Fold this sequence. Notes:
Blueprint: H1 3-11, H2 14-22, H3 26-36, H4 42-55, H5 71-75, E1 92-94, E2 99-106, E3 111-115, E4 118-121, H6 122-126, H7 129-134, E5 139-144, E6 152-154, E7 159-167, H8 176-179, H9 185-188, E8 191-198, E9 204-210, E10 217-220, E11 226-228, E12 236-243, E13 248-252, E14 257-262, E15 267-268, E16 277-278, E17 283-286
Antiparallel strand pairs: 1-17, 2-5, 2-16, 3-4, 5-14, 6-13, 7-8, 7-12, 8-9, 9-14, 10-11, 10-13, 15-17
Amino acid sequence: MTIHATIVRIVQHEDLNFLLTNRIPRRLVTQFMGWFAKLEQPLVRDLSLGVWRFFTELDLSDAKHTDFKSMHDCFIRELKPGARPIEQDPKIVVSPCDAILGGSGRIAGRQLIQAKNFSYTLEDLLRDPELAALYENGTYATLRLTSSMYHRFHAPHDCVIDRVTYVSGDTWNTNPIALARVEKLFCKNERAILRSTLVDTGYVITMVPVAAILIASIRLHFVDVMLHLRHTGPHIIKCRAEVHKGQELGWFQHGSTILVFAPEGFSLCDGLVPGTRLRMGQPLLRVPRH
């Protein structure tokens, strides 16, 4: 085994990984990283990207450009035109991001699976009983973005986004190691709740981008405010953003998780199981016959 593989294996050991990414001053480290990642100093940028490449499989072959000003500039990179074909079938809701599929499938009443032995409720996550009621016995998908993935997210269908709810919170890591150890993790972390109505059918789909350690900042193009740990309000932002399937909505500053919720009658597309790697624009959910 090479020295590189040995070091990576040590850092990825469950106990050490959990210690390094959670048993630290999470909010302070996250705020520092937000500042550090934006430094436009060539040496800092190159060393940071070098460390990033050492520990991940960073692939920039589909990036629109690679002359990055900073590490942050690389994190939120755009793609070359056509790099993510969008499934155009109106009966399909597509993945809003590049991701690995985690907990997903049928919602048991209003209870969902976070990881083995851990669950959470729609009310705890969404903080809105009426919205939670829409997804009782519905379908959900947990989409985990790794640090090396494309970090922008897009509209999963032609829809109108009419409300964004910001929930301040912690910044636990959202990797499988933390999900298996921290109860109701998604409900504890900072997040934005995006409620949208599908064009023509009227079904309400909700996406919940969840922040995490080093990544507690979410930018939405249709809301004139950056959602981050220092945001003091408003927490409910009314809007009317008419977007088309595949249209860019915003980005994470680094990477994290997006939860997608659909009402009863929707189903996961064929062949999707936990661990499936998805690209933005690929089929995720099937719309019921209207």
